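Input record, target 12 of the design panel.
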């Protein structure tokens, strides 16, 4: 048999066959007088053994060891492979649960799953798909920058924003935010900034009452956050964000008691 014949009969590619030669799993037969390698049935059987072991999940280095003997391997070899499969099953089960969760809320598949229930409420409250996609992008960026320690903080914010008494107003503000572009006027910016401040101030107060741990926005994360938002947001969105930040900071300062304690 030539290499193509052997590969076809064993159900592999010629490239795979050559790889087996390169890593020493399969000996290369000598070339015949016509320059072709001639494989026999012993080679076919060995390739079939390799395929069987690979199908079971053994790595190629493990396969090389198993091919050297005719006795069953120690039980620890099977135990390790079984543990690996158990871990894969656990991971795949979790992935299926995430898919079911996203499907339940008809969420964008790349939306962080912990935000999906609240995004669903906001969409039902008037948030269009385009604005939902914009918020998805911003949320992904923010979650990446604040890290895992900030996930619960952001989840609670979305939970508060999607409460029935404010969901429609939040959806309208998010829609206006997504539409800010180079043609937005200073009046558009100021109007939306005041609207967002009015929406976020009660949320900030509720967060304080809930004693939700704040993510660490100290240097350098805060500098990194500002750098990315400056490069990513439109100038109008950046202006709104800066105005809202300033208004909320002023409100916090004014609400603090004067004097020690």
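The sequence produced for target 12 reads:
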């Amino acid at each position: 048999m030539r290499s193509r014949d052997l590969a076809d009969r064993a159900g592999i590619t010629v490239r795979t066959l050559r790889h087996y030669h390169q890593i020493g799993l399969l000996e290369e037969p000598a070339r015949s007088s016509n320059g072709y390698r001639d494989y026999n049935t012993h080679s076919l059987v060995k390739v079939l053994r390799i395929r069987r072991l690979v199908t079971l999940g053994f790595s190629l280095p493990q396969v090389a060891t198993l091919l050297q003997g005719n006795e069953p391997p120690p039980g620890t070899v099977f135990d390790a492979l079984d543990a690996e499969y158990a871990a894969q099953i656990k991971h795949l089960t979790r992935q299926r649960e995430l898919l079911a969760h996203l499907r339940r809320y008809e969420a964008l598949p790349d939306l962080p799953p912990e935000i999906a229930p609240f995004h669903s409420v906001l969409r039902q409250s008037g948030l269009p798909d385009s604005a939902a996609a914009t918020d998805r992008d911003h949320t992904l960026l923010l979650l990446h920058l604040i890290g895992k320690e900030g996930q619960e903080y952001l989840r609670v914010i979305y939970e508060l924003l999607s409460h029935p008494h404010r969901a429609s107003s939040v959806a309208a503000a998010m829609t206006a935010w997504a539409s800010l572009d180079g043609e937005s006027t200073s009046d558009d910016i100021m109007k939306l900034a005041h609207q967002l401040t009015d929406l976020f101030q009660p949320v900030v107060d509720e967060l304080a009452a809930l004693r939700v741990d704040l993510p660490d926005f100290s240097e350098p994360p805060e500098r990194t956050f500002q750098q990315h938002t400056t490069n990513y947001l439109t100038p109008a969105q950046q202006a709104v964000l800066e105005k809202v930040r300033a208004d909320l900071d002023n409100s916090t300062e004014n609400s603090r008691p004067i004097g020690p304690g």
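The chain has three domains: 3-66, 74-104, 112-255.
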